[in-house]
């Protein structure tokens, strides 16, 4: 049991791609937890997708031994966090387990939208902030400019800023000293009734659910009976330990420590993130506050390509939810695709990550329907109904008012790209609320715009237009009246419910044409002609036709009466007409994926 005055719990927060994972790598090397031979970049980013994309998706914890001035040994508990706006919930959970935060800022890019957002999150948790400027080795580094931004934009002391190069290890020793000096040791008594917060968990096929906890009061050790307060379930602790590039067993975990507990938890839903762990016989007075309830903003249905994989998909989603509390799902079904699940995501990147994890980690072939947001409908009878699934859309005649969610979007960009960004926001039905110059070169734009316009390709286009320099953060504000319609796609005059979508009326025509065109490119030709139609309330607004494969039935007729050829052609025509009435159109998975990507 470590004396808590020698413990420091901290997190690294930053905008995406400002060097969090690289800094975490340098910390691990400084603590000599791994040999140079076994070292590789992004050590804490253990998922294959994180390594491929070069981004952090999951917050990861690790205990770093650190000897200050060659005498006293400290334990620095680091919780690495993601930077993308879609994973801000992961950041909020990580910060709850800490007393301090390293606010990392790129020396070439300066303060970005997510930097500000994460700082406010840390201040809400009353954390000690240690501002750090990274990438000072780059030719484009402007340290004085970034210090000025830290003082003016963030309101922090620019003189206390620490300069580092995470790539080359410059300033890392100084930073670790400052962490010990500035971040307060954790509070709490090891003799008080046990009170620990579950901030994460993962599933082990042999040992069940491994719970990640931060102990605020008391002590937990093997053999102890613990209780999870929200479910009242009681378990016997089998093992406790800390994170050291893996699990390292310890005799106990006491107040102030971060570690894991294995207690034979087999029911995945019992180990809820945000729950409080206490002693079943000596309970704490009250549960810890936990986390704010996560609100998904993008909805899509998932179906297995092979209907026999439905149960495997269900188990995979349970395990993913254990590791990613922001994922929510419920059962769903489709006439075209069979049984599946309706899922809620924090954004389109979150959706893509879940799709890749299902395919790579669980070897499942899945189809996602077009993403949607949650609309609010007021019916003529006075009832208020929230819908995110086009299949639940009522008859238009029964609707009095349709409303869609709006967001407040903050964009920080060099002023060079201002015109392009304003045009993009106007195209997405944005309403400009403010335009502020943060300094001579950087401008902050605040827009109100519909969430439905942002979830498709806004972030990608913003990065493209600004050559990657613009940063984007948003929060949902309210619902506003909109002109919503349900767009149906018909194949061979039969509706495909999995391709239906709810859309703003003015955008429906262009979207319907794009979908019909992409389906025509993706669907293979059949023996009969296939019409592809986009309709609103039975009115066709777009159409493409896939021509039939045609066998040359007259090839064996050499000369002779023309009526003989005509008879053969009429017979073929009648057969194709009959085939069209009873024939099923085979819709490949690539057709669904093509419709999801909103590009020409």
Question: Could you explain how this protein is built, in words?
Answer:
By secondary structure, the chain is α+β, with helices and mostly antiparallel strands. It has five domains: 4-182, P-loop containing nucleotide triphosphate hydrolases (Rossmann fold, 3-Layer(aba) Sandwich), CATH 3.40.50; 195-279, Translation factors (Elongation Factor Tu (Ef-tu), domain 3, Beta Barrel); 298-368, Alpha-Beta Plaits; 375-481, Alpha-Beta Plaits, CATH 3.30.70.240; 487-493 and 507-596, Elongation factor 4, C-terminal domain (Alpha-Beta Plaits), CATH 3.30.70.2570. The protein has 14 helices and 31 strands. The strands form six sheets. The chain has an eight-stranded antiparallel beta sheet. A six-stranded mixed beta sheet has the order 2-3-1-4-5-6, sandwiched between helices. Helix 12 runs antiparallel to helix 14. The termini are far apart.
What's this entry about, in short?
This protein is of the alpha+beta class. It has five domains: 4-182, P-loop containing nucleotide triphosphate hydrolases (Rossmann fold); 195-279, Beta Barrel (Elongation Factor Tu (Ef-tu), domain 3), CATH 2.40.30; 298-368, Alpha-Beta Plaits, CATH 3.30.70.870; 375-481, 2-Layer Sandwich (Alpha-Beta Plaits), CATH 3.30.70.240; 487-493 and 507-596, Elongation factor 4, C-terminal domain (Alpha-Beta Plaits), CATH 3.30.70.2570. The protein contains 14 helices and 31 strands.
Portion in strands:
25-35%
How many separate structural domains? 5
CATH topology of the largest domain: Rossmann fold
Please work out how many helical segments DSSP would assign.
14
